[in-house]
């Protein structure tokens, strides 16, 4: 797995470098996009970003869970959860990167 987590600051820096907005404008743009995505999901709507993936809201029914420490059965209330479904384009890019990384590791081992 990767060593680094991409942060909001990293995204803002990428916008700054690639688009040429000021750092402040880049940070505001990233923050605005993330806020809109969060607000849309909070309303129970899906967010689809072409060539990236979809954030979907799924409903989970009530079920019985078990406290692993005591073994006691506990009801888990119904709730809504957010799930991410990557697009086929994203899946292909990840597979290509994984394949390239694996082949470079094999060549280095030879």
TrEMBL record:
CDD domains per UniProt: IHF_A (cd13835)
Q: Which parts form a coiled-coil structure per UniProt? A: none
- Protein name, please? Integration host factor subunit alpha
Species of origin reads Aureimonas fodinaquatilis
Q: Which domain of life is it from?
A: Bacteria
A Pfam family annotated for this UniProt entry: Bac_DNA_binding
The family note in this entry says: Belongs to the bacterial histone-like protein family.
Q: What GO terms are given for molecular function?
A: DNA binding; structural constituent of chromatin
Function, as annotated, reads: This protein is one of the two subunits of integration host factor, a specific DNA-binding protein that functions in genetic recombination as well as in transcriptional and translational control.
Which InterPro entries would you find in this protein's record?
Answer: Hist_DNA-bd, Histone-like_DNA-bd_CS, IHF-like_DNA-bd_dom_sf, IHF_alpha
User: Which gene is the coding source of this polypeptide chain?
Assistant: ihfA
List GO BP terms, alphabetically: DNA recombination; positive regulation of metabolic process; regulation of DNA-templated transcription; regulation of translation
Q: Name one GO cellular component term.
A: cytosol
**How is the subunit organization of this protein annotated in UniProt?**
Heterodimer of an alpha and a beta chain.
- What keywords is this UniProt entry annotated with? DNA recombination, DNA-binding, Transcription, Transcription regulation, Translation regulation
């Amino acid at each position: 797995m990767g060593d680094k987590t991409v942060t909001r600051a990293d995204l803002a820096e990428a916008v700054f470098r690639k688009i040429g907005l000021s750092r402040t404008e880049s940070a505001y743009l990233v923050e605005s996009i993330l806020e809109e995505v969060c607000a849309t999901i909070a309303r129970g709507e899906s967010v689809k970003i072409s060539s990236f993936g979809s954030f979907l809201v799924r409903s989970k029914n009530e079920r019985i869970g078990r406290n692993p420490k005591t073994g006691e059965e506990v009801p888990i209330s119904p709730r809504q959860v957010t799930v991410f479904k990557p697009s086929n384009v994203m899946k292909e890019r990840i597979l290509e990167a994984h394949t390239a990384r694996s082949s470079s590791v094999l060549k280095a081992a030879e």
